[in-house]
Design a protein that fits this description.
Blueprint lengths: L1 H9 L6 E4 L11 H12 L3 E4 L5
Parallel strand pairs: 1-2
């Protein structure tokens, strides 16, 4: 979350799209990270894409 936060607010060339890839397994959609991503998507209107196939 710190890296995504920096890419949006701490970088002079603030992000328009965020792409990330990491494993982690399945979640129920109610984790702090998922709420953070929702805030980026809906609150800041920044596109977020994730690699498919990392569980």
């Amino acid at each position: 979350m710190e890296a995504l936060n920096w890419s949006i607010f701490g970088n002079p060339d603030d992000a328009d799209v965020i792409s990330y890839s990491f494993g982690g397994g399945k979640t129920n959609g109610d984790s702090a990270f998922e709420h953070f991503i929702d805030a980026i998507l809906y609150g800041l209107d920044i596109s977020v894409v994730a690699a498919n196939g990392n569980e």
